[in-house]
Description:
The chain folds into 3 domains: 2-131, no CATH class; 141-213, Sun protein, domain 3 (Alpha-Beta Plaits); 219-323 and 386-522, Rossmann fold, CATH 3.40.50. It contains 19 helices and 13 strands. It has helices at 2-11, 20-25, 34-58, 60-63, 69-81, 93-99, 102-115, 121-133, 153-158, 169-173, 204-207, 220-226, 246-258, 271-283, 394-411, 433-441, 443-448, 460-464, 485-490; strands at 141-145, 163-165, 180-184, 191-194, 211-213, 236-239, 264-267, 289-292, 310-315, 419-424, 451-452, 492-494, 505-511. The strands form 2 sheets. Strands 6, 7, 8, 9, 10, 11, 12 and 13 form an 8-stranded mixed sheet that branches. A 5-stranded mixed sheet has the order 2-3-4-1-5. The longest helix is centred in the N-terminal third of the chain and has 25 residues, at 34-58. It is globular and about 75 Å long. The two termini are 41 Å apart. The relative contact order is 0.11. S-adenosylmethionine (SAM) binds next to helix 13.
Amino acid sequence: MALYYDAASVLSSEGGQGSLKSRIYGPSTVKSNPTQIYALISETAKRDVFLKDVLDRAGLLQDEPKLTPLLALLLCHDHFFSKAGIAAPVKHPLRQSIERHKARLQSEFTRARLRRKCASVDALKSSLDRERAGLARPHPRWARVNTLVDQDVEAMFASLPGCKRKLRLDDVLKVDQGTRSYCYDEHVPNLLAFSPGVDLTKANAYRQGELILQDKASCFPAYLLLGNESKENIGDVIDGCAAPGNKTTHLAAIICETGCTGKIIACERDGIRSKTLQSMVEKANADSVQVLAKQDFLALDPADARFKGVTHLLLDPSCSGSGILGREDIPKLALPEDPRMTTKPTTNEQPGSKSKKRKRGQGQPEGPSLEEEPVATTGNPAADEEEAPTPATGERLQKLSNLQTRIVEHAMKFPAARRIAYSTCSLHEQENEVVVSRLLASQIAQTHGWKVLPRSQQVDGMQRWKHRGVRSKPDDVDEQNKLNQEELDACIRCNPGDEEGTMGFFVCAFVRDVDSGEDSRGSNGSGARNGDASGGDGEEAWEGFD
Ligand SMILES: C[S@@+](CC[C@H](N)C(=O)[O-])C[C@H]1O[C@@H](n2cnc3c(N)ncnc32)[C@H](O)[C@@H]1O
């Protein structure tokens, strides 16, 4: 049936280099009805991660060597979600290649649905639709009032055209008849939610650094790290992965409010992003920030005298960016694992396609790049936090998870460190709860007494936030997420597209009691380490997404 071959061709580099619509509707070799192709692609794109999971668990590609991962995904979409099923005659080999495995597929489908706590297929569809597109729901524009700049907040609001103050987010999101409004956030101090249509980039308050465009979720790490710390406990602070500097300037604002005199050391490995960081710090009037440009956080020596006063660290490393709400044209679908390939494509964008490429280590599959069009949930591309939001699966997720674990392990070695915040804008458990679980099990955490900061000891707004850590596979003995309920509750999640109006995000804080003398060595701890939670699988060779 041509529909599935046509859709697969449009999605791969064979379909040309233009936009999705131009590939489907423009002069091309597609034979099927363009509207049907478009519907198949856009519907599959909402459910790809779910379908991939079903296909991988059912092991379909092992038994159907003629099916490509992309074809399997498209066919399975219609098999499960289209009322008419696969659009091909009953005896057609493509249709048979799926229906032969009907029972096995159905049972994995049902399990996957129940794991998502969806009682029916309709509930599943709504949940997946919300999750993927989150976009149908109006998304507020979040902005943080920069308390580092002297300002008359009321005058600032008066300068925002026709913006009325409301009490609740729901009211701000009602934009009938072009009304525009804002409200203060109920969890994070000095944070505002504006109606979706408000263009803050044109406001003087934004140009003058009085307002910083920053998603609500992205404000959690600095607030969780310092929001309820006493002045005596705060010395210097390291932001290990700092550019473009949203969280750095937030740290600076909180430090200033507490009256601390400590400095913030902001590390950024990438040269260009270091410049963005520097200019953001200047614009925000964040005098307490010292930028270490082109500095790899992992290369800092925790025993260096410069860092002996570092009590707090914030680590927001590179991640898959799967929580970022964005606009994609050619959807990058998460594909089932292909057992016949040694180098596995994880999405439909093929190696060697003409999109601008990122530097990767040897043997890495070339992932899709959104570099040309960075997706900023803030409405301000210059403040885009994640350098390359990229669908990641399997091996690549494992590498990211390893790097993230290594970065936090490194933070745990700073001798005076007492609190660490780790965050990602990823939805994947492997980059979130699994990293936390691996860190707690690591030698460094155990010898230095690091534990998660329990919910009951978190700053008020974070205690009240209801979305907490998850474990999707409680019965799987191989599962790396071994967090107990209290530890899961210490983790904070944000779900893209839900009623909270945030992007997808994860944050967890670690604490230790440095005053108890638990870590008597006072060294960087590296000599004592014999376990390496981050997996010594040579991920150093791969420089990740930047
Ligand atoms: C998710 S972004 C950080 C966003 C930033 N925290 C903010 O709120 O604006 C990750 C940043 O960390 C940088 N990075 C990744 N690994 C690093 C490392 N080992 N040392 C220093 N910077 C690193 C990347 O270049 C990228 O700019």
